[in-house]
Specification:
NADH Oxidase; seven-stranded antiparallel β-sheet; 6 helices
């Protein structure tokens, strides 16, 4: 087995999880849950399937296409994972690397173990504290040089596609997944180690959060 690199956490293969239920079953199962168990733990396999569904590579040819469509295949979305209770992963903030299907510890985070409570406070939603993990979908200006003023809508479309993919994957696995859209941008960015003061465009920064856990 290859030695784990410092800060890198390889995720399990998702092949088996892709056969769980049909798309139409997942659509009928998708619900928002704001009452989450405070004692349950998420498996790495389940988290791997959800993050891959959001931003994973589905085509391993030279084009390396992802699960969510992207204007110009420029992929302006970053996906952070705030871990609270996931088997084999220390609590903290990670960025998902689709190229390596792995989580990498996010540097520059002030007290990463307290990231989830800080995000919950930024949402003014106490129930978010009970999540086993929280996905933070963040936009970047990667499309700006090509699409200029239209880039903002393309980033948001991609963020929506990635979010829906994650929601349906979670539903197929029996995991509660709830979208949070009302939050303090700056405080969420600070909690995951992004600096909003350097951001110049509307599409930059946190776009949507997804709280994951076991429903009560």
């Amino acid at each position: 087995m290859a030695r784990r690199e410092e800060g890198w956490h390889p995720l399990p293969d998702v092949t088996d999880h892709l056969k769980q239920v049909s798309l139409f079953d997942a659509l009928s199962l998708r619900r928002s849950h704001r009452e989450l168990s405070t004692r349950s733990y998420m498996s790495r396999e389940r988290l791997a399937a959800i993050v891959w569904s959001a931003q994973g590579i589905s085509d391993t040819s030279r084009f390396r296409k992802r699960t969510a469509p992207s204007a110009g295949a420029l992929y302006p979305i970053k996906l952070y994972v705030v871990v609270s209770r996931v088997d084999g992963l220390p609590a903290g903030v990670y960025e998902y690397s689709c190229d390596r299907h792995a989580l990498v510890s996010k540097e520059g985070v002030d007290n990463p173990r307290e990231a989830l409570p800080r995000v919950a406070a930024a949402c003014r939603a106490e129930w978010v504290r009970d999540a086993e993990a929280l996905l933070v979908v963040v936009g970047t200006p990667a499309l700006r040089h090509k699409y200029h003023g239209r880039s903002v809508r393309y980033v948001w479309v991609e963020a929506g596609a990635a979010t829906q993919n994650a929601l349906l994957a979670a539903a197929s696995l029996g995991t509660a997944a709830t979208v949070v859209g009302a939050f303090d941008d700056e405080k969420v960015a600070q909690a995951v180690g992004d600096d909003l003061t350097t951001m110049r465009y509307e599409e930059e920064g946190p776009i949507v959060l997804i709280a994951l856990g076991h429903p009560v």
